[in-house]
Amino acid sequence: AAARLRELLVTATQNRMVQGKTGLHISGGLDSCGVAAIVADHTPDKSCLCGYSWTPEVFKETVEGTDEKEFIAAFCEDKQVGINYLNLQENETVKNALLPEFETQHIEHPVMQMAGKDGVAVIFSGWGGDEFVSLSTRGTVNHLFFSFKWFTLLQYVRKKGITSTLCQFRTEILPLLVPFGLLPAYRIGQTDWSILHLLKPAFIRKYWRKLFFHRYKNAFGYGDRSRFMLNLLEHYHLPERMDSWSINAERYGFEYKYPLLDKDVLEFWFSIPAEHTYKDFHPRLLYREAMKGILTEKIRTRRDKGEALRIAFSMRERQNGKKYLENLFYGIPLAEHLHFFKPEAFQQVFNEFPSEKLLKNIRNMHKITCYLRYVALVKDYLTTNHE
Fold first, then answer.
1. Measured distance CA(140)–CA(126) in Å, rounded
2. Rounded Cα–Cα distance for residues 197 and 341 (Å)
3. Bridge partner list, 257
4. What is the pLDDT of residue 263?
5. What are the backbone dihedrals phi and psi of residue 338, each rounded to the nearest 5 degrees, phi first?
6. Which of 48, 130, 228, 319 has its CA 20 to 30 A from that of 35?
7. What is the per-residue pLDDT across 29-43, written as a single tens digit (0 to 9) for each?
């Protein structure tokens, strides 16, 4: 299976290569660096390659997490590829979080801007790997529970520990057994009932059924591990992200390439017995085997996901932009505020932010940035002639 996966990944990447300047996402992780390694191995003139990292060039403050630069440097030395680190201007993270697109792109957008200036024709991304061919142990508890493989589930508990397994149970299974929005597992993920104090009572009374009885589409679902992966397609997690990236990439004159989402690769992946994807409960086992001799060994054998530092840095930068957000919010003319929100209620959100609790900070930032995006979108569609 690993040998066949390797063959398909190399073919999928080669088929997407073009003449001219080529960009490579090099995050230091397995997915992006795996794709970048294949491109580099099949590009004799390395001067045509431009590496881009979401890791900041300079950390202004101490941030906890694994420094990806160690892995990125090892990759660049091995493959002889130059790298452009993220170099953010003041409040740039906050400004990018306000982009009124399908999703928040406070990390991706600066990379797109760099690629646009460099004049690359395409950027190869490892995005989508975490959902399929380099899938971690995410969804394993769900698969074993609903497939009645409970003896294997006990082995999983012994391998991963009771605490870790209970956390997965809470996320992957409990919302399916108790499918109602008041469940705490939902509040952790998608439903934050504190948003209600920002809405006017008349709006809540009018739409109370939709507010309280909506059902979040759980990505895991009933069934085996394949059901989880199919849900990511059917619930538009993958299509929306790809549309969003494509539209913005077109703005900067290049196109994204996703070899890990190649049709032949995915068809083969779905033909593999589910047991192959969680054998010995080692995350990304097949992908690691397929990348032997291709991906820099230091990266291929790493066991951490390595995103904690990037996420922490992003959150820190956004928290530092509180004053910028306040100026934007209070700069909105009274007539342009959305009539079903209570603008005065946002003062409490600003007063609570930043909090000592990271989750509360994330939620408060989400409320503020979403509201500002909604106001911008409404203003755009009311003042622009859209035929």
1. 22
2. 9
3. 124
4. 94
5. -70, 130
6. 228
7. 899 999 999 999 999
Q: In what order do the strands lie in the sheet with 83-86?
A: 83-86, 49-56, 22-25, 122-124, 255-257
Token pair listed for 226: 């394949």
Distance CA 8, CA 2 (A): 10
Tokens, residue 195: 């948003």
pLDDT at 188: 41
Output DSSP code: residue 256. E
Which portions of the chain are predicted below pLDDT 50? 184-189, 386-387
Tens digit of pLDDT for each residue in 40-97? Answer: 999 999 999 999 988 877 766 555 656 788 899 999 999 999 999 887 777 777 777 7
SS3 category, 56: strand
Cα 371 to Cα 98: distance, rounded to the nearest angstrom: 9
User: Using CA atoms, how far apart are residues 290 and 269, in angstroms rounded to an integer?
Assistant: 13
Alpha carbons 166 and 84: distance in angstroms, whole number: 40
pTM value is: 0.84
Find the distance separating the first CA and the last CA of the chain, reported in whole Å.
51
